[in-house]
Amino acid sequence: MSLVLSGQGEKTSPLLRAARKYSGHLSYPLALLGLCWLLALPCSFWRRAYFSENAMLPGQVYTTFGTAAHMDAMLAVDTVLAAGADGRAQALARAFGALGLDTEVQRFSYDEVPRIGNVSGANVHGILRAPRGDAGEALVVAAAWTTGDGASNVNGVRLLAALAQHAREQRYWARDLVFVVTDRGERGIEAWLRA
Hints:
By secondary structure, the chain is an alpha+beta fold. The chain has five helices and four strands, in the order αααβββαβα.
């Protein structure tokens, strides 16, 4: 510190005198060097140090999935199962409506499906409108009541209901979410897409 500052009003240090003497001559080259540095930042040789915005997103994640409200949404599917196969679509539509989704039941029927015969069923879809979106884009999340080999997929439908509850709690999403529960597997989603 004694090299830069002078003592109690005594003569100044040699380093401070040199800085004052050459400051006018050094300021222009240093300003030009700083400007060149700023202009070089977007050049291609800086791509090795590129930092993507997507790399920052994991730090913004809140682990809030699995709360009591999500479990309640899963349990609502159990009440749907108690309604039986006939009233299952209407009961699920009521459960989706209780979650705040715009719901609709779509009945479909296919005649003469090769190797299967006549196929009929009912799909249920619920739309969660984005609070900040313009309804121009949507993301579809689907689950079938049965798997491809005919086994029950109740856990998939429960998870879909819990995801719908979780999505309803979010306020920063800008896309609509469409939750579809299909009957008859692939035939049901095909009927939903054709409607």
